[in-house]
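dumping this here so i dont lose it
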């Protein structure tokens, strides 16, 4: 049996694995890292940590576009899993479609899940989805927050890089770019809020650490 045939068989097995793994992964990622964490924090603080506004101000629009992107991304992984003939419609990047790169993507996805869960644990009761203008939360500077000002956002970006590398195509590349841009805007909104809330303490922390890593 030729080396080319072996590689083709390994690639087919990897694709079959990814069709099961990717939907399961993102269900677990958002279920554990966001839904479960929100439920835990809500019980501790007596209110929902989901504080995204529903109007059309900057906070609300970024939250809306982020949720919309996540919905489309999940639809994509479902289409990848169940409608395999559609994959070529997503403009695959053949130069990146190798087993080595797919394994690298799997490694990044695994890292991102673990990293994000740990970072959220370090946030304790300060965890919010959005900007809580009604409650003064603790400024967290320990744990993973001593290496990154925004470790959860960093984990999310890494997960999108992992998705792109496991299924390299124009659509997953677009998801990565969109999420990165939205996160950059959200970070700036949050930094302005944290500066107003914590003053010099946050400015000192901000000067010591990089934005992501």
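and the seq i came up w/
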């Amino acid at each position: 049996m030729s080396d080319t045939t072996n590689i083709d068989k390994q690639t087919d097995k990897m694709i079959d694995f990814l069709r099961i793994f990717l939907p399961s992964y993102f269900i677990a990622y958002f279920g554990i890292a966001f839904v479960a964490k929100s439920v835990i924090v809500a019980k501790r603080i007596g209110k929902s940590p989901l504080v995204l506004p529903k109007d059309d101000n900057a906070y609300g629009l970024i939250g809306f576009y982020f949720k919309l992107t996540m919905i489309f991304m999940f639809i994509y992984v479902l289409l990848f899993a169940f409608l395999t003939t559609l994959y070529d419609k997503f403009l695959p990047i053949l130069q990146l479609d190798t087993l080595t790169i797919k394994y690298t993507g799997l490694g990044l996805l695994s890292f991102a899940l673990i990293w994000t869960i740990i970072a959220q644990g370090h946030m304790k009761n300060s965890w919010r989805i959005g900007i809580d203008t009604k409650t003064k939360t603790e400024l967290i500077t320990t744990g993973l927050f001593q290496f990154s000002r925004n470790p959860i956002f960093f984990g999310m970006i890494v997960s999108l890089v992992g998705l792109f590398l496991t299924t390299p195509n124009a659509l997953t590349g677009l998801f990565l770019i969109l999420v990165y841009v939205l996160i950059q805007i959200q970070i700036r909104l949050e930094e302005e809020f944290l500066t107003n809330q914590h003053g010099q303490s946050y400015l000192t922390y901000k000067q010591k650490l990089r934005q992501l890593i």
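The two ends are 46 Å apart (CA to CA).
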